[in-house]
Amino acid sequence: MGYLNSVLTSSSNKMDADDAPVSGGGLSQDGKFSYGYASCSGKRSSMEDFYDTRIDGIDGEVIGLFGVFDGHGGARAAEYVKQNLFSNLIKHPNFISDTKSAIADAYSHTDSEFLKSENSQNKDAGSTASTAILVGDRLLVANVGDSRAVICRGGHAIAVSRDHKPDQKDERQRIEEAGGFVMWAGTWRVGGVLAVSRAFGDRLLKQYVVADPEIKEERVDSSLEFLILASDGLWDVVTNEEAVSMVKPIKEPEEGAKRLMQEAYERGSSDNITIVIVRFLANDDDHHPVAVVDSSSSSHNSSSGASLVN
């Protein structure tokens, strides 16, 4: 996603052996939620998607952290965000007491540290971040860019994040007030270059392309069935409603993520495809509170996500 000069590879609907997907999943030790993920480079010649899935414990509370990071201008920014964002978040002194502020601070700090670490290199490198943080009965979704979070509540698909696009009225106004411009170049782009209006990195456009997340909180109750986080490699070809409908009958999140990934590929998605699904198990008798070790493969490119089950 993102840059005007992104290169696409073969349009064949057959995955090569080198592009074989990685998938995995796990279950929280208290049995309240399970998760699964699937990721592949798709028809792209390079892999710029990353993901992270973690289960941690803070002050006796089981914490779930899940994220999808879609890079542009190379993989460096997405890899950095994957490696540092959640670590910065859980170290925040107000993570439990003021989680929303902690998330906003962690996004800002991670962006600043990435820009410092890169110096004058990789000036075009940037990344989206669509993340979900589970703290008790609270689900906090934070988003920068055009990866997306969708929940199924009461059988209905509900977007809990907004794609940050330069042609949105408020985003365009913010960019122009900062001295930038938005123009059409195949799609609406900041400075005629970047197709998202918020991102980590993007040093040359940083004055206009901010890493300020929009954060939405949802209550985890019996009506909340599952959450889907995915890069635009899915959402470009599958609607929110279609994704929820496909996942709903599939109890295992890993299998649901693989189903969506394959569907996006077969529908002709021209981008990397990465999906994380979290299923809430409060009323699910098919699962029992036994912690399992994540089954991710570390051999899939450099995009395999960390998963810690305590």
Give the tags.
single chain; 310 residues; alpha+beta; six-stranded antiparallel β-sheet; 6 helices; 15 strands; disordered N terminus; disordered C terminus; protein serine/threonine phosphatase activity; protein-serine/threonine phosphatase; EC 3.1.3.16; PP2C_BS
What does this structure look like?
Its EC number is 3.1.3.16. With 310 residues, this protein is of the alpha+beta class. It is built from six helices and 15 strands. The protein has helices at residues 76-90, 99-118, 169-177, 232-235, 240-247, 253-266; strands spanning 22-27, 33-40, 49-58, 61-72, 126-127, 129-135, 138-144, 148-153, 156-159, 182-184, 188-190, 200-201, 214-219, 224-230, 273-280. Strands 3, 4, 5, 6, 7, 12 and 13 form a seven-stranded antiparallel β-sheet that branches. It has a six-stranded antiparallel β-sheet with strand order 1-2-15-14-8-9. Strands 10-11 form a two-stranded antiparallel ribbon. A hairpin with a 3-residue loop joins strand 10 (182-184) and strand 11 (188-190). The longest helix is centred in the middle third of the chain and has 20 residues, at 99-118. The protein is globular, with a radius of gyration of 18 Å. The protein starts with 21 loop residues before the first strand and ends in a 30-residue tail after the last strand.
